[in-house]
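Summary: Need help interpreting a holo structure output

Steps to reproduce:
1. Submit the protein chain below together with the SMILES for zinc ion.
2. Request a joint structure prediction with the ligand placed.
3. Inspect the structure token block that comes back.

Expected: a single structure record containing both the chain and the bound molecule.
Actual: see attached output.

Input attached:
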Amino acid sequence: MAKKRKAREPVAKIRTYLKYGFANTRIESYYCPRCRHLLNAGPDYQPRYCDQCGQRVVFDKVIWKEPETIGYVERRYRV
Ligand SMILES: [Zn+2]
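--- attached output ---
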């Protein structure tokens, strides 16, 4: 069944996460414009609806960026 809500663009936010436990990586993430749920979207897959609130989202204008390594965490094993 088609939903009649208007499609909206997702909200982009830069976030960083630790890749492999030591590489600070900066990626752009996309959130639902309605309920701010993190959308599981990437260059190869974009959901058509938010799986939390059912908001229709369009990724047509999104320019996907490569994740960027911005630094490494020093290991602090030494006492
Ligand atoms: Zn939502």
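--- end attachment ---

Reviewer comment: The CA atoms of residues 42 and 64 lie 7 Å apart. The two ends are 61 Å apart (CA to CA).
Status: needs-info
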